Amino acid sequence: MEITDFSTFLLAFLLLSYLLVTGRRLISKKSTGKLPPGPKKFPIVGNLPQLALAGTLPHRAMRDLAKTYGPLMHLRLGEVSQLVVSSPEMAKEVLKTLDPMFASRPDLILADIMLYDNAGLTFAKYGDYWRQLKKIFATELLSAKRVKSFRSLREEETLNTIRWISSNEGKPINMTNTLLNLVFGVLSRATFGKKSPEQDKLVYIVNKAAELATGGNISDLFPSIKFFRLISVVNYKLKSMFAESNRLLDMIMKEHKKGNGSGESKDLVDVLLGYQRENAEFSLTDENIKAVLLDIFIGGTDGSFTTLDWAMSELMRAPTVLKRAQEEVRQAFETDGYIDEEKFEDLKYVTSIIKETLRLHPPAPLLVPRSNDETAHILGYEVPAKSKILVNVWAINRDPRYWEDAESFKPERFLGSSVGYKGTDFHFLTFGAGRRMCPGMVYGYANIVHPLVKLLYYFDWNLPSGIKPEELDMTEEHGLSVKRKADLYLIPSVRNSISHL
Ligand code: HEM
């Protein structure tokens, strides 16, 4: 785990100086009950050293610690109490039995600064505002009907990508960038109606901001010390990024207000502005709308793009799986020469490949952190109020008690199996479960399956010469979501012509 803010030494120096000058006791609210087991906590920094010294990504370090301390583990990072949940049974307790207790979100500086003081759905505290937004997501923004209405956008953007790939036949292309641009294109058009340089800029800013904030931001680690908020370089940078992203969103909103949502097909900005105009019971401010747009944009692009990139990488490492998937897709559509989304459900093997990718590579390996507003009790342990609750779905999705040969990519395991990621099988929790479960699952899936089927149908794929399938680097990189560290380069050869499209 990195400390993205100051160097660790400077951090420790400032902290200790502050404590010496003020004579203040850092951990003021001592827990009176029995905490879940966990590694020894060091003064002031708590368990930061164990995570920093693990030299690996947080979900991996926490899985290793949980092997010693159990599936309900207590950590303290800086001042913040954390509960780490690492088994399907404990996840069921937290996300189902005690779901309302753990349904809030912790304070995070990123959401505070960039997301209009937690005004989006993702970081809203559990309560009425969250409930109202959730309803808008379910009925207005991400209903199955709305997702279907974006079908032509998926088709057009994917076709543009297929054309571009065809024109680069025989050359190594950067698939990672290609997939990112594709998913971004679909999301941009569905959300804002068109692609524009402003949106490119917006994505860049948001990703940069998330990168900055995903390490241990000093003000997140020591929230009671307001002084750190003032001197944090990261916070200063976040504020200037916020100013820019707010300016871009204002421009987008202004353009849409002028058009009054009168275009042929409504984009999500139109839908939200329409709701604002027409709905009297819940007043949605411009700031609320901007926060929701960022929610959709961040959640939407990252999850689908990351999954596509992992799926293509896993397929390149497993040539027999790739071949079988191509056969399935080609058999289904070669006679018609037209790929119809309605038939995707019949593609059992491709569906299994996506499931297996989501199992092994959950884009949010620790979910989005949850929090408990009040002190909670679970299996005889006390969880102090305002703890950060991390559910290690990366570890859970690989639990060898539930998954045979759990570390291997084997899509066949899902053929004829009813196990899925919809939040009822607690050993497969890529989209979470319970009240805070991802509302974008159907939309996210549509943006994965559509491009994947077409990439398999139109092209044969090879790794650049000299790279053997088993040598493909699958190292993960820490970020807003866990992506592959290296970009994926592949050589396409056209299998089915697109000239008639
Ligand atoms: C493969 C694609 C995706 C994955 C893996 C994914 C994963 C997740 C996860 C793990 C959570 C947290 C669940 C929890 O706390 O229990 C979440 C929440 C959320 N996701 Fe997604 N997501 C994806 C696509 C999308 C899309 C396409 C959108 C919107 C367009 C979206 C919007 C959200 C929002 C708004 C939340 C917050 C819900 C709340 O706190 O009530 N996600 N997602």
UniProtKB/TrEMBL annotation:
Pfam families: p450 (PF00067)
Record SUPFAM superfamilies: Cytochrome P450
Residues involved in heme binding: 438
A GO CC term attached to the entry: membrane
Protein's membrane topology: Single-pass membrane protein
This protein's record includes keyword Transmembrane: yes
Entry keywords, A to Z: Heme, Iron, Membrane, Metal-binding, Monooxygenase, Oxidoreductase, Transmembrane, Transmembrane helix
GO MF assignments: heme binding; iron ion binding; monooxygenase activity; oxidoreductase activity, acting on paired donors, with incorporation or reduction of molecular oxygen
Family stated for the protein in its record: Belongs to the cytochrome P450 family.
Protein name: Cytochrome P450
